[in-house]
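seq:
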Amino acid sequence: MNSTLVHALADPASSAPDATVGTLLREWRQRRRMSQLDLAGEADVSTRHLSFVESGRALPSRKMVMRLAEQLDVPLRERNTLLMAAGYAPLYRERALADPHMASARRAVELVLKGHEPFPALAIDRHWNIVAANAALPPLIVSADAALLAPPVNALRLSMHPRGLAGVIDNWHEWRAHLLARLHRQVEVSGDPALVALHAELEAYPAPAHAHAPPSRRHEPDPVVVPLRLRTPHGMLSFFSTTTVFGTPVDITLSELAIEALFPADDVTAAILGRFAEARR
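struct:
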C-alpha cells in the first residue's frame, strides 16, 4: 500500500426498506434514547403528529422526514432509507472515490496521508475497510498473514486476528477493550448489522499466547490516551491515534470516510519511524 488509493469503495445497491417510515423513525428515536415529547420539541412538531407518524396513521412530508432525521442525527445512508420508506426519492448520492466528481476529496485524502509521513495513517470506510494508506504503514504490518492483507483489508480484523497483529500487540487486553468499546459505540450510533457482526467476530478471537503475561513497561509517564504498543525487531513502538472526518459532507461515501493517523507516543518510536523513512528513500 502507498499514499494512493488502494481500492475504491464499492457502490452497494440500495435495497427497498422492509419497515414503514414510522417504524424506522421510532427505532431511531429509541436508539437515541429520546421520548416522543423530546423529539417533537426538538423538531418543532406536535407530539400528537409525531405519534401518528410513528404509528402509520399519518405520512410525513419530505421536509418532515429530513427534519426528524436531522434531530435524530441519522447517518446519510439511512436518511435515504427513511425517504424511500416514506415514498420519496433518495436525496444523497453515493459515489466511489474513483469517480471524477470525487477528485478533490480524493486529493485531500492523499495529501493528509502523505503529509503525515513518516508516521502511519490510513483511510477507512464505515466498516473499517482500508481505502488508502501512506507508505509508513506497511512496515508495521509485515508480520500479518498474507490472507489478511488481501483487499479489502479490514483494519480491525487485521489488528485483532490471531494471524494478524495480535501476536505483536504488547498491551493486547487494553487495546482489545478500547477497540471493542469504540466499535460498540459505532454500532449504537449507526445500527449497522455488518458492524454488529464484526463486533461479534472480534470478540470471539482468542487471546494470543503472550497476552497471559503482563505487558512490557518502560520508564515513561502514564499515557493520557490508550496507546497501541507494538513489539518489533527494531524495538517497542508506541502510538496514539487521532481521527479526521470530512466536515458537512453531502455524499454518503465521504460521510462514512475517516482518516486514522498514528502519532509516536515517545521519542524512541519517532526515531525508529524516522529511520524507516530514510531506508525507503
